[in-house]
Amino acid sequence: MSDLVIRAVGESEYENWLRAVSTGFLSPPVVSADQLERSRRTDAEASARRTGAFDGDRCVATYCSFRQELTAVGGAFVPANAVSGVTVSPTHRRRGLLTQMLRRDLAEAKERGDVVATLIAAEYPIYGRYGFGPAAWSVKWTVEALRAGLDRRWAGPEGGGRIDLVDGAEVRTLGPALHERFRAGRPGAVSRVPVWWDTTTGVLRSGPDWTEPYYAVYRSASGEVEGLVSYRTAEHDWPGNQPGDILSVNWMLATAPAAERALWHFLCSIDWVARVTSDRRAPDDLLPQFLPDPRAARLTEHTDWLWLRILDVVRALEARTYEAAGSVVLEVADPAGLAGGRFRLEASADGTASCTVTSASADLTLGVAELGSVWLGGESLRRLAALGRVREEREGAARKADALFRSPGLPWCPDLF
Ligand SMILES: CC(=O)SCCNC(=O)CCNC(=O)[C@H](O)C(C)(C)COP(=O)(O)OP(=O)(O)OC[C@H]1O[C@@H](n2cnc3c(N)ncnc32)[C@H](O)[C@@H]1OP(=O)(O)O
Fold first, then answer.
1. Coiled-coil region(s) at which residues (predicted)?
2. Closest residue to atom 43 of ligand 1, CA basis
3. Mean of the per-residue pLDDT values for the chain?
């Protein structure tokens, strides 16, 4: 360990650093010009900070964090430190490299004034020890399209809009503004930088096998863009000479139920398509309920997705809105010394709240990871109390606090970063 150096990585070292990322993620250790360009663009657009651990000239561990905004319950955009590209070479694992890089980065993020840190955890057991808790979940569906698409009795609003096929250039024009409207309405959504749109539309290729997808846009009756979808079709497979194509949705964004319904109906009605597979959707996704027979949509995945680490309890609790008026005193334990303390949360009837450090006796005692899990409204304090992960200092305190913390829509982060 003594000759290992952890330090910031300069642009001239990106190839070495990206090769280490590929090695850690078990991808071919080949770095393309587009990958290098994407890294430079992310630096410029999101102030990315890249760290590496070097054993001599060899990069043996990687870590990246960048500026992000996370949507809180109520729609406020909260400054977040997004963590990504975390790898340690198989030759250097379990010697504390991740721990050193993460601790340093979280301390710097706190110092900068970020309210939370975010990440998508490769494996569940890694990040809880650093104060991260799972905070938004996602689901995937497979729809029997031949069954669902031909039936006209879909539920939900019709909207009277229209759908058009568009190309990548139009997606780059229409997508960012639609996404801004989308993320304001969904707790757990995160900001996107322009390079995201260039990557999804192939201006910068994410890999050698990238192929052009189809895109469709939904415009409302008044002409407003309310939905966009990117999808591909797989090899034609026609068992017994029956249509059997599979259509997979890469991503779908919608700001109104009518747009969502229209886009799903469109996809399920395309000739030859027997099955439609969804991308990662919100746990309260409307898709199955639009269908004449909701069982035509099979749940194929339900998993934790976005993880959160609260860095500033007062600002985090004041940034979101609350569903009821009331108050609660929380004793938050944070062994890393970044965000712990005792806090009184006072929520008003208009949904806003104030949060102050207090010496009053606590209603609930919980770890900072548990607070991260409930902050977006996707987990309940009662459930965590039942598991022994939240302690009720007063009987019924978890139920009372749940009435404040619940969210009108479940949190969802459609992005992988
Ligand atoms: C946001 C993202 O980028 S997610 C991607 C994470 N990266 C990967 O999954 C790629 C493959 N894995 C790796 O590169 C490495 O194993 C890492 C990054 C997960 C861990 O790096 P390491 O340097 O080995 O971690 P470190 O030595 O600091 O371990 C810290 C603790 O986490 C535990 N830990 C580390 N990885 C895992 C794991 N995959 N499963 C369970 N526990 C783990 C260690 O046992 C150790 O526990 P301890 O503190 O009780 O002793």
1. none
2. 126
3. 96
Q: Which of 94, 101, 124, 417 to mutate to test the pocket of ligand 1 (most atoms within 8 A of CB)?
A: 94
Tokens representing 210 are: 């990238």
pTM, full prediction: 0.96
Give catalytic residues, as residue numbers: 127, 417
Q: Between β-strands 390-392 and 364-367, what pairing exists: parallel, antiparallel or unpaired?
A: antiparallel
The partner residues of 138 in beta bridges, in order of sequence, read 303
DSSP state of 279: -
DSSP line for 315-333: HHHHHS--SS-EEEEEEEE
Q: Annotation-wise, does 277 bind a ligand?
A: no
Are the beta carbons of 281 and 302 closer than 8 angstroms? no
* CB-neighbour burial class of residue 415 (10 A; exposed 0-12, middle 13-18, buried 19+): buried
Q: Which atom of ligand 1 is least distant from the CA of 86?
A: 3
Angle at 219 between CA 215 and CA 221, to 5 degrees: 155
Q: Could you tell which of 93, 101, 305, 416 is best to mutate to test the pocket of ligand 1, judged by most ligand atoms within 8 Å of the CB?
A: 93
Q: Which two tokens stand for residue 217?
A: 């846009």
pLDDT by residue (tens digit) across 389-401?
999 999 999 999 9
Question: Is 121 touching ligand 1 by the criterion CB < 6 Å?
Answer: yes
The predicted-structure confidence for 169-185, as pLDDT tens digits, reads as follows 999 999 999 999 999 99
Domains annotated for the chain, with CATH where assigned, are 4-131 (3.40.630.30), 138-305 (3.40.630.30), 312-405 (3.30.1050.10)
d(CA 193, CA 47): 11
The secondary element (H helix, E strand) that includes residue 254 is strand 245-254
Task: Provide the 8-state DSSP code for 146.
Answer: H
Tell whether ipTM is more than 0.95.
yes
Helix (H, G, I), strand (E, B) or coil at 186: coil
